[in-house]
């Protein structure tokens, strides 16, 4: 194998090419990215970076010099326009590159509001790229009125930053409660109370009808008929996997680029990893949107490109930072039928433990790193302590690991 091409210069793409070199691959590696910058972290963009607590240089996953030192060719600032799976070539700009193996780490794209309801007005933002956040920064001014559309983690993190920067924040969530798709009512209750304590006006069961303004957004009409004067809108209504190139190349797509347990697509010379890839897991097909998955799956794919034949078995974990609360999540709560709440040691700290019958599935830990650590290790070991033992504040969590 002489040339491995990776399309998508984000967390997964960077992890994959570095892993190839660490495994001793000495052939040609090309990493292609649409943005003009080397791979950088996305989670801090709308938090530490927007707050001015992190510089641009600290966002970079690795120094740009490292790629040159490792003989990894970076082609940045130009999108790939075509993949010819039969000829094993990709077209980028006016250049055609031949590959022996191709990996797609194209990530995802934020859902935007339709133009018909004002989505193209100036002052309406999504949060995904450095450019998105740099544009938004000009509108995040103390005293301005901000509307956050969507009560998932992206929306809640945006609301927290806006409130910390002195904006008047209203959030609308069309579902009955914030975090309804991803968390138990107990976790929704915790974060609703947190945001309201910081002055955020959370309106659940209410959607956005339309945004109003000439060229710039000036107000919003909600589905309950309320009209709100506005200066800025942040849209956090989810992301979609970036599958356009894969579909055009004739690859199978199923809620993302469809890969087998080893990360191989329907074309044996093409692989995929990260946000864009859906893979088999416990009899289902899932797609994980997390930094941890981007790194771990990409590294597994690197090993398999070089012939390891290893199935990817994720150990899911996630996090979210809001105000002074760090939420850490271990496991996947899909299929839970019971939640037990355990108070933490610090003031306001607690954890929510998800069960399906007697089986522990996941843990949400708010400012409770011990609960997160123990819960994560229990889930990875396949251990399920009884719910009443977990809920008992007198239980020393560490003893559960020895049971």
Summarize the SSE layout with pairings.
Blueprint: E1 3-7, H1 11-22, E2 28-33, H2 45-49, H3 56-59, H4 64-69, E3 72-76, E4 80-84, E5 89-92, E6 95-98, E7 101-104, E8 108-110, E9 124-126, H5 130-137, E10 145-149, H6 153-164, E11 168-173, H7 185-197, E12 201-204, E13 208-213, E14 217-222, E15 227-229, E16 232-235, E17 239-241, H8 244-248, E18 257-258, E19 270-272, E20 277-281, E21 284-286, H9 291-305, E22 317-322, E23 325-331, E24 338-343, E25 350-356, E26 359-366, H10 369-381, H11 387-391, H12 397-400
Helix pairs in contact: 1-9
Fold and architecture overview:
It is a single chain. The chain has 403 residues and is an alpha/beta fold. The chain folds into three domains: 3-109 and 241-305, FAD/NAD(P)-binding domain; 112-235, FAD/NAD(P)-binding domain (3-Layer(bba) Sandwich), CATH 3.50.50; 324-400, FAD/NAD-linked reductase, C-terminal dimerisation domain (Enolase-like, domain 1), CATH 3.30.390.30. The protein is built from twelve helices and 26 strands. The chain has helices spanning 11-22, 45-49, 56-59, 64-69, 130-137, 153-164, 185-197, 244-248, 291-305, 369-381, 387-391, 397-400, and strands at residues 3-7, 28-33, 72-76, 80-84, 89-92, 95-98, 101-104, 108-110, 124-126, 145-149, 168-173, 201-204, 208-213, 217-222, 227-229, 232-235, 239-241, 257-258, 270-272, 277-281, 284-286, 317-322, 325-331, 338-343, 350-356, 359-366. The chain has a five-stranded parallel beta sheet with strand order 3-2-1-7-19. Strands 9-16-10-11-12 form a five-stranded parallel beta sheet, covered by helices on one side. It has a five-stranded antiparallel beta sheet with strand order 22-23-26-25-24. Helix 1 (11-22) runs parallel beside helix 9 (291-305). The N and C termini lie far apart (48 Å).
